[in-house]
Write a structure and sequence with these properties.
By secondary structure, the protein is an alpha+beta fold. The protein is built from 18 helices and 17 strands. Helix 11 packs across helix 12. The longest helix has about 30 residues. It comes from Panthera pardus.
Length: about 525
Amino acid sequence: MPLPSLSAAILSHMIAINNVPPPPLCSLPKLKMSKYIDYGQLNALCHMRGLQSSQSSYSILSAHNMFIKQYPKIFLKKKTRLPKLFKQEEKREPTEGTEELQPQQPDDSHNIAIHVKKARGGPTLYEPKKLEEKLAEFLDILKKLPIYRTLREHRTVWKMLKTIPDLTSQLTDEHLKTLSRSVISETWVKGSTVVGNDGFYIILKGSARPQTKAYKDLIDENESASSFIPQSFQGFVSNEDFKNILAEMHTPSCDPMLRQWSTFGTLEVTAQTESDTKEYSVITEEDCEILKIPAKDYVRLKSENIKLENKEKMKLIHKCPYYEEWPTLSICELVALIKWKKFPPGHVIVESGKIISFVAYIYSGYCNIYRNIVGLMKLQPKKVKKNQKLVCMGKLNEKESFGEISVLLQVPFTCTIVTGKEVEMAIIEDKDLFELDPVTKQLMLHTAKPTFGHLKDEDVKNVYLEREQKKEWKNFKDKTMKNSLYYNGIIPGFGKWDHCWTSIPRNLKDTLISY
């Protein structure tokens, strides 16, 4: 009976390469002796008399006890090294005719700027700026109108404001950077009354006395039991001298005096009443330079950020398939209730058979959709066990929503939703959704659909059986190929297998894999 063309080609190729010599044998690597074992003691223990002799039990027991005592000696102990004692070397007195070596400074003989500074009594370019110089530079910048400041000057103001704890504890870095572009400095003579209910004030120079001892946060309107003086200015980073000065300048809690870098005022725009005016007012004890952050600028910044955020939320909802035909007014009602939330990869958002507590709109990332199915697992040739498994039926990608039907109708989910990677969502909680007007809720029920509600149990079974059949067929192919190569004298992973597989032509490899 003639062989098929494929079998004949494989057989002829195997006969042709049967005479190929096997690859050369590789020598075994040399064993490295451990540096933690005393091989002399180990050899002595191995040849100890009395352990293997057929003498009395007493001699064997004594040899065993001796072995147990000598056994710990085969392990070498690490030598503990004590730290070295450093002796302070005495400084040598310079001999006559010699001078102490000093660090060389860069050659500034040709730099005209250095000569001008020396002639005017100022520091050179290589000397660090002192605190007074930094403060003077900061005050000079604040004296300018914000539109006349350079980028470097704006950055200097921003860095200075970041060192004030009362600002950084309540404002984000981005908000502080924006507000630093509009701050100004005001000069107040001795005995002036500064009303701080229209902005947030920082004393840069001089001192002042508050009219009341109550202190309020920049933003929160609730009174606090703490004193009027907030946390002191902590100084420039990398300026140790300034930190020492601040430590000496610490004001005790019983002293209500506001000194340099103290703060007062608020960033909330409120109706000006007589009690509020006194609460935020201070009286200058000497001529003062006070930095002011207008409350109106902060309110305008907050409103702009809210507008941008609402615009992003509206754009997200409008791109979801269920909301493409929604009117703008109805979407604005949902935007007012939205909160942002992030979920890590592999987080189970809702399980099958449970009611979800929010409606979600995926902003970034994706979620996998799983359905439960009861499968059979083989234990013995004639025994099987029922096992519940999750079958992945699809994904929820960006600009898609879920949970509307489950929340409004209180219907359990028919699938399990798990995040595939980090997912950021805009969510509306169920308690907020129930407070919507009936028209918006009916519109949501009319346009939304259950998440993967079109799937039936028969569809899930078919997907599960198809994947299981593919898995079994792959295992069967791998086993058959290994057995056929084994019976032809080529064992996978040994000897001629690697050389045989690399020598097979590409078209024959593809044919074997397709089978």
